[in-house]
Amino acid sequence: MSAYDTRIEGHEMIVEGTMAFHFEKPPGFSFKPGQAMDVVLVDPPATDPQSARHAFSIVSAPFEEHLSITTRMRDSAFKRALKSLAIGAPIRIEGPFGSLTLHNNRARPAVFIAGGIGITPFMSILRQAAQDGLPQRLVLIYSNRRPEDAAFLAELQVLEQRNRHFRLVATMTQMEQSTRPWAGEVGKIDETLLKRVISELPAPICYLAGPPAMVEDMHRVLNLAGVDDDDIRTEEFYGY
Ligand SMILES: Cc1cc2nc3c(=O)[nH]c(=O)nc-3n(C[C@H](O)[C@H](O)[C@H](O)COP(=O)(O)OP(=O)(O)OC[C@H]3O[C@@H](n4cnc5c(N)ncnc54)[C@H](O)[C@@H]3O)c2cc1C
């Protein structure tokens, strides 16, 4: 794994409690959509030197000029330090790594199942696919508590219009706590929803990202819906 010194170019809140951070893309850094990298603080807080690094999916696509990550802002020493960095501050990245990347057989559709901020690896894949005009069927089943928490929802709706091979199925699981209108699916992703989506697709390969309990449950439900373990891909991402 290679290390690169770079700089923070900006950050912003994108939905409630969720921030995007943008870095200069170092010369020579290349990655595949869906991969991750370690973000390493050059000057970690003296009180907690153990919290100097954190792994994030790269949410930007390779064709984009900048490198970006997105995360729920839980109260950790690392995230507090990252948020407090000034624009232009030095930062180190290490990577890329990970194999949650799109399979090569374009005849087989991909079904991405994302819980909350687990959307990040799939955003990179979907942005690059739209840019390249990829003629491969892609379906995203995206679960959030409320529209207020759903990162990139508007962009995904635009991507669905731009890319006729891409279909978005978004569901909200806590609409009773929302103040926004929502006309899409409600309730957790379950066997009925998965079967409805998957039955329309020839031999799909399914990708999972989200809270660990969700990834585990979705794996089981995919098996119940008739998807073989060989056709289910995920990566462990703990400590958020
Ligand atoms: C491959 C991968 C990449 C990741 N990349 C990142 C990253 O770049 N940045 C980052 O911050 N985190 C990342 N994560 C971490 C992960 O997504 C978090 O653990 C998770 O998102 C928790 O926070 P949340 O607030 O988004 O989820 P929540 O809001 O708690 O849940 C999201 C949705 O999942 C539903 N859900 C929860 N549990 C279940 C269940 N058992 N069955 C069905 N539905 C369920 C909820 O109802 C809700 O709709 C990644 C995880 C994986 C596996």
Automatic annotation (TrEMBL):
Keyword Iron: yes
Keywords: 2Fe-2S, Iron, Iron-sulfur, Metal-binding
FAD-binding FR-type domain residues: 1-103
Protein name, UniProt field: Ferredoxin-NADP reductase
Keyword Cytoplasm: no
Reported cofactor(s): FAD
CDD domains documented for this protein: FNR_like
PANTHER family xrefs: NADH OXIDOREDUCTASE HCR, PROTEIN RFBI
Entry-linked InterPro entries: FAD-bd_FR_type (IPR017927), FNR_nucleotide-bd (IPR039261), MRET (IPR050415), OxRdtase_FAD/NAD-bd (IPR001433), Riboflavin_synthase-like_b-brl (IPR017938)
PROSITE patterns: FAD_FR
Organism: Pseudogulbenkiania subflava DSM 22618
Gene Ontology MF terms in the entry: 2 iron, 2 sulfur cluster binding; oxidoreductase activity
